[in-house]
Amino acid sequence: MDLLISILLYLGVYATPADLQNKEFVAKNSEQINKAEMLSKDPNFKCDGIVIVGSGNL
């Protein structure tokens, strides 16, 4: 799931694990989620420059 969320961030969609369980969020972002799922399975996909920063508090 971390890879999927990272790819969504790369695609410009801010998502959390809770968002991926939310039906409204999934429906609204289904195109990007499908694209991220396809990219996560592509062995040739490379994305450089993703930085995830968090305080540990949600």
Record the SSE blueprint.
Elements: H1 2-10, H2 23-28, H3 30-41
Helix pairs in contact: 1-3
Molecular structure report:
The chain has 58 residues and is mainly alpha-helical. Helices cover 47% and strands 0% of the residues. Helix 1 (2-10) packs across helix 3 (30-41). The longest helix is centred in the middle third of the chain and has 12 residues, at 30-41. The radius of gyration is 12 Å and the shape is globular.
TL;DR?
It contains three helices and no strands. The chain has helices at 2-10, 23-28, 30-41. The longest helix is centred in the middle third of the chain and has 12 residues, at 30-41.
How many strands in all?
A: 0
Overall pLDDT: 84
Name the structural class: mainly alpha
Low-confidence stretches: none
What coarse outline follows from CA principal-axis ratios?
Answer: globular
| Radius of gyration from CA coordinates | 12 Å
What separation lies between the terminal Cα atoms?
A: 17 Å
Order of helices and strands: HHH
The helix count comes to 3
Q: What is the beta-strand fraction?
A: under 5%
For this entry, give a set of tags.
globular; 58 residues; mainly alpha; 3 helices
